[in-house]
Design a protein that fits this description.
By secondary structure, this protein is mostly helical. Helix content is 75%, strand content 0%. α1 packs antiparallel against α4, α4 runs antiparallel to α5 and α4 packs parallel to α6. The mean pLDDT is 95. Bound molecules: fe (ii) ion (FE2). Fe (ii) ion binds next to α2, α4 and α5.
């Protein structure tokens, strides 16, 4: 929610067209709904632990701090990278999930994420090729950093050993029970595959 809100604010700040602003506002609204659905699902299945384990880079409030980062940077991070990786994961999770409530939530989410990915790459296609060469090169370097971060936040690669074991077990147990995950190893492979795909798509837009 904060990340997409940052995209919306950057678009307004940089004088983007209303159609683009409306598209990203819709994405922001979808992310609120996904959070509501996830919360309701957790409550239905027995509640959840409020404490986020140490070592996980989960900081939505700090991500909501005022930012003067440009639209292209936010759009690259949230649109091209996060949405694309998220779609690959949620699609695989949906296919592997047998628990009906979890499956219904994933079905709803995957539909939205597919649209988010389309909006993100459409915008990227309009904006990225028009940037100066130096700026595109800089964005490519930033993209490599983002890829590393996503391996850690969406997947389990690069986490500290103890936390990693815990997260891997959590995913593997959920996968075995058909409760909304695929195995940790499978997730990491899917993330690598999506990141490879993103790198190729960005290179085709001159970000390399
Ligand atoms: Fe999304």
């Amino acid at each position: 929610m904060p990340a997409v809100s940052q995209v919306v604010l950057a678009l307004v700040r940089e004088g983007a067209g209303l159609t683009t602003i409306a598209a990203y506002t819709t994405i922001a609204q979808d992310e609120v709904r996904h959070a509501e659905l996830s919360h309701a699902l957790a409550e239905r299945l027995g509640g959840y632990d409020d404490d986020v384990p140490d070592g996980l880079d989960y900081a939505p409030r700090s991500l909501a701090n005022p930012s003067d980062v440009s639209f292209v940077v936010w759009a690259l991070a949230n649109g091209c990278f996060s949405e694309t990786v998220s779609l690959a994961l949620i699609r695989a999770r949906h296919a592997a999930t047998t628990q009906p409530l979890v499956r219904a939530v994933l079905a709803e989410t995957v539909k939205d994420e597919a649209l988010h990915v389309r909006i993100a790459w459409q915008t990227a296609g309009e904006v990225l090729p028009n940037l100066a060469r130096a700026e595109r090169k800089e964005l490519a370097g930033y993209g490599d950093e983002l890829a590393e971060m996503l391996r850690r936040t969406f997947g389990t690669a690069g986490l500290p050993p103890k936390l990693r074991r815990r997260e891997v077990t959590l995913r593997d147990d959920a996968a075995t029970a058909g409760l909304g995950s695929v195995t940790a190893a499978h997730e990491n492979a899917l993330i690598d595959e999506a990141l490879h795909d993103i790198k190729g798509r960005l290179a085709a837009l001159g970000v390399k």
